[in-house]
């Protein structure tokens, strides 16, 4: 008996402290007829769950005072979210969800009127080759940017200016004239080639030595011949 009384009292207290969050959803034009059957209203995740009627309205009952995040969930569409604040006196205030600034207050009308943001995307589409990607390729920029700069500079410079033409002619003359250092180096190398080398001197001395040796050999041979002839005459006289 006492337990039943306590349960009744607690139930009445919960009924007094519980409130109802209500609103409506605006489906997209391409939504099917049974879109409401696949839609759920989640309050603070899945702490409280509500269903959507065919006309798009919903009610979530049994919610105590506090601050709650309202999220309509559909497998094919993304709906707008909202935050609902319920104070102890039962006053309900709705505001927009601002993730970068949670404390910023941007009030929404209550009962809630939430629309869709678009279709849910579960797979990232494959990137396709574009002309802009080719143009911004670093290898292409290395070739294209200098070429464009040359074209722009040639357009900016006035080639008909007489002073500019004189400067260009002087630059061409300087490029055509030989460098003095290179000229002097070539002259010095040419002069070294004319000087007699040491090998020629050695060749002359070697030829001279050979000539002297031949003469001495000839003299030695003649002396030997005269000596042998004298000996023969002495032998004849002795006989």
UniProtKB/TrEMBL annotation:
Belongs to the EMC7 family. This is UPF0480 protein C15orf24 homolog. The lineage of its organism: Eukaryota, Metazoa, Spiralia, Lophotrochozoa, Platyhelminthes. The keyword Calcium does not apply. GO terms for molecular function: carbohydrate binding. InterPro entries: Beta_sandwich_EMC7, Carb-bd-like_fold, EMC7. It is a single-pass membrane protein. It is found in: Membrane. GO terms for cellular component: EMC complex. Keywords: Membrane, Signal, Transmembrane, Transmembrane helix. It comes from Clonorchis sinensis.
